[in-house]
Amino acid sequence: MTQPGSLKEGFIEPGKRLFAPGHRGCAGCGELLAARLVLEAAGPNTIITNNTGCLEVTTTPFPTSSWGVPWVHSLFENAAAVASGIEAALIATGKREGINIIAQGGDGSTFDIGIGLISGMLERGHDILYICYDNEAYMNTGIQRSGATPTYASTTTSPSGKISWGNTRPKKPMPEIMAAHGIPYSGTASVSYPRELLRKVKKVLEIEGPKYLHIHVPCPTGWYCDTAESIKVGKLAVETALFPIYDIEDGVVTNVKRLKEIKPVTEYLKTQRRFAHMFKKEGGDEIISAIQAIADKNVERLGLKR
Amino acid sequence: MIENTVVEGSYAVAEAVKLCRPKVISAYPITPQTHIVEDLSQMVADGEIDCEYVVVESEFAAASVVMGASTAGVRTYTATTAQGLFLMYEVLYNIAGSRLPVNMTCANRAPSAPISIWNDQQDSVAVRDAGWIQIYCEDSQEIHDFQPIAHKVGENPRIRLPVMTMMDGFILTHTYEPIKRMEQEEVDEFLPPYDPVVKLDTARPLTFGAFAMPDTYHEIRYMLSRAMMNSKGVLEDAFKEFGEVFGREYHPYFEEYRTEDADIILMTMGSLAGTIKDAVDRLRDDGEKVGLLKLRTARPWPTAELRKALDHASVVAVIEKDISLGHEGTISSDLKTAFHRHDGPLIHSFVAGLGGRDIRVADIKWAYEKAKSLREPVDGSIWVGVNHDIIPEVV
Predict the structure, then answer these.
(1) Does residue A1 surpass a pLDDT of 80?
(2) With an 8 Å Cβ cutoff, is B295 touching chain A?
(3) Are residues B48 and B184 in the same domain?
(4) Which residues of B touch A12 (CB under 8 A)?
(5) Least CB-CB distance to B205: which of A56, A69, A116?
(6) Around B370, how many Cα atoms within 13 Å sit in the side-chain half-sphere?
(7) Chain A neighbours among B 236-275 (CB < 8 Å)?
(8) Topology of domain A30-302, CATH
(9) What's the rounded Cα separation, in Å, for the pair A185 and A249?
(10) Contact A130, A210 (CB under 8 A)
(11) CA pair distance A247, A259, nearest whole angstrom
(12) Percent share of chain A, pLDDT over 70
């Protein structure tokens, strides 16, 4: 039996929702969908720590909550350290067995303000899964640039303008930075492939030790795309090789999601107004070529072409 | 009969923390707190404490780790000072607002700039509004004894507040003094295992740290404020019970020394009280009617008790190692509120001993004479022992 809104594979028991509907996410929000899928895969014996951000704000306006598992939010940057303390407490009281601990946050809290605390958590070897829901800017505060913002995207603090092409810096290679800690697992996923995501979360939670999972989640509000097209836009990021899906297990790249056909990046860029300036302004061709080069490099680096 | 043992001040804290049976300790090393956390690390390494010690990459992480552990429902401890305390600042408010009874020792040190590892009390004074109960200690015995009291008060289900005990860096942390050590059985009798009202539990999934809209935030902060005010009664009970179990009596808010007939009362916090007691004795020998009030609990602030204790004096000279820049010493400011619309003593603020500057009996006598001579209120603080010869003229 399945229930409305859940997948056919049915990871949660009928009649029992771990992630309740009625939250305040925007229409077409990729992050909240991904969070729901993560929870379905992780199951009820899970404790979650959540950084400040869209996911926290939309799901827990007091006195309501979407969370059917023990869940705690402390600050913007410290979910990894709070989770570390929870694990220590469970170990100290002999209650660690059978509990998944997930620390999660958006790209701002992961790439920027909280990276030191995640690094500390990984280095200490906690048996915790850290999940980054990457929508490529500070969406909760109004689409400001983060270290995850793709090159030449326009945001409110890296706007395109008469003399600007938007964010000029490359996206920080977070999965590689995390993997460099010598952890057993670091990998990527996209909410646009929900079954793969569910399988991946289940698989990763089986691995003992610190783990990092990076989920690409379209944000129609911040990317200025059609709210009905979120999943499609997320797929295009993968299909154009701008967001490759792969694992790094014990430092070795594995399970690369290979593509029969690599689409040109314009197919992805033209779906979102954050890239619109490069189609309008003179010289935009060069910018698009530069973005194509990023995708080409991903294809080469990871062997994305089947 | 418990014999006196000579221990380092840091060890006096560490051993008391051990006797309180914490389940999670997390700290980041910073002078002069280091010996406390080194001692605790060794105790964990030797299997003397059944707890997890989480070695972290920053004080911000240390505070966050104990925040998480406390939310998971266990007794927690951390220690820091100055820069570390300031790095924790965001988490301090979060822990208090989350009503988590974390126990922290602050080994008082001067804040940067200029960087200094030496003692004053600017650090803990600067975080006095964060929602932590604050207890200042004069010596190793106090810092030893006040650890179980900190847990007992903070963990009270009516209170649920974090507690910070202060000890002067180096002056107490690195000094060897004789103390009467608590026994495990006594501590167990005084301090039962921590039984949280709510915690992270998969059998009863609850959401912690939800965000509050303007229709509820105000009330939640009101409840926090009320808990802090209500902690007074709980503090009084805890100190009383401590006396019954351990045979050492402490007034919950302050200690008075030769104040009964004093015309001028000196007031301070922490280890400086020892020097002031000597100064009071010498001044008394010279026929001066002077006494000392050593403030112990600074948050919650004991307004009525201080008013009663100091009302008979004509002058109170607060000698403190902190200043609210642009105003005066904060303890002086707080004290003045006790006499708002009361015909109380004249209150003078003296700032002394910043950044580890030694405060001698002669300095106290100087402050006393100054206080005696000033018969009108003074704006700002009077600085003790400033060497004007080394101050450039341009400043």
Answers:
(1) no
(2) no
(3) yes
(4) none
(5) A69
(6) 22
(7) none
(8) Rossmann fold (3.40.50)
(9) 5
(10) yes
(11) 16
(12) 95
Taking only the tens place, the pLDDT of each residue in B64-117 is 999 999 999 999 999 999 999 999 999 999 999 999 999 999 999 999 999 999
Chain A residues in contact with B26 (beta carbon < 8 A): 85, 88
Within 8 A of B55 by CB-CB distance, chain A residues are: 124
Q: What is the CATH number of the domain that holds B209?
A: 3.40.50.970
Please tell me what DSSP assigns to residue B120: -
Please report, for chain A, the start and end positions of each structural domain, with discontinuous segments joined by +: 30-302
Distance from the Cα of residue A40 to its chain's centroid:
16
Which tens digits make up the pLDDT trace of B182-210? 999 999 999 999 999 999 999 999 999 99
- The tokens for B229 are 């005010």
Q: Are B292 and B159 in contact (CB under 8 A)?
A: no
Measured between alpha carbons, how far is residue B66 from residues A8, A76, A129, B101 in Å? 41, 16, 19, 10
Q: How many C-beta atoms surround the C-beta of residue A296 within 10 A?
A: 15
A68 → chain B, closest CA residue: B205
Residue A186 confidence (pLDDT) above 90: yes
pLDDT of residue A4: 38
| Residues in chain B within 8 Å Cβ distance of A105 | none
Average pLDDT over every residue of A217-231 = 98
CA distance B22 to chain A (A): 10
The predicted pLDDT at position B394 comes to: 78
- Within 63-102 of B, beta carbons closer than 8 Å to A belong to 64-74, 76, 90-91, 94, 98
Task: Output the domain CATH number for residue B333.
Answer: 3.40.50.920
Q: What is the pLDDT of residues A253-304, one digit of tens each?
A: 999 999 999 999 999 999 999 999 999 999 999 999 999 999 999 999 999 9
pLDDT tens profile A64-90: 999 999 999 999 999 999 999 999 999
Regions in chain B scoring below 50 on pLDDT: none
- pLDDT at position A17 is 79
Instruction: Say if the Cβ atoms of B24 and A68 lie within 8 Å.
Output: no
Domain that holds residue B294: 254-390
How many domains does chain B contain in total?
Answer: 2
DSSP class of B98: T
Distance of residue B25 Cα from the nearest chain A Cα, in angstroms = 9
Alpha carbons B213 and A118: distance in angstroms, whole number: 29
- Residues of chain B found within 8 Å of residue A44, distances taken between Cβ atoms: 202, 205
- pLDDT above 70: residue A10: no
Q: Which two tokens stand for residue A50?
A: 């959540």
**Sign of the C-alpha dihedral, residues B168, B171, B173, B177?**
negative
For residue A241, give the nearest of A263, A219, A223 by alpha carbon.
Answer: A263
A5, pLDDT greater than 70: no
A45 residue type, one letter: N
For chains A and B, CB pairs below 8 A equal: 157
> Which residue carries 């020892």 as its tokens?
B274
The answer on B17 and B146 residing in a single domain is: yes
A74 to chain B: closest CA residue: B209
Q: Which of residues B225, B246, B267 is at a domain's end?
A: B246
